[in-house]
Amino acid sequence: MSHDSVGAILTHCGWSSFIEGLTFGHPLIALPFLVDQGLNARIIADKQIGIEIPKNDEDGSYTKNSVSDSVKLLMVENEGKKFRDKAKEISAIFGDRELHGGYIDNFINFLENHMIMSNASTSG
């Protein structure tokens, strides 16, 4: 997914796919099916980091035209530029290993310090 030839990611909107796509700065084309995927798709649309493929009003299915139109809008049309730009912007946060590593280091330090303080209060 990190290759420059990837223009967007068609995703079922599982949380891992959501994060992975944004880590590499690709806009997301949301095709939700189950559980939390619909909510994740709405977040994608609300934050303008991608679009949700519209469903057929009659039976709730996805049509080949709705899929192809969504891909074209996001990857080719001028209107899709705002989504591509926003996904790149967000990747600075999702792809920042130092930032995310810092959370883990801080948490470990907190636990170690808490254990030291807890042990000191119980032994004295």
TrEMBL record:
Q: What keywords are assigned to this protein?
A: Transferase
Q: Does the keyword Transferase apply?
A: yes
Q: GO MF annotations for this entry?
A: transferase activity
Establish whether keyword Transferase is in the entry.
Answer: yes
SUPFAM superfamilies noted in UniProt: UDP-Glycosyltransferase/glycogen phosphorylase (SSF53756)
The record's annotation in InterPro entries points to: UDP_glucos_trans (IPR002213)
Under the heading PANTHER family, the entry gives:
UDP-GLYCOSYLTRANSFERASE 72B1, UDP-RHAMNOSE:RHAMNOSYLTRANSFERASE 1
Name of the protein: UDP-glycosyltransferase 91A1
What organism is recorded for this protein? Forsythia ovata
Q: What is the lineage of its organism?
A: Eukaryota, Viridiplantae, Streptophyta, Embryophyta, Tracheophyta
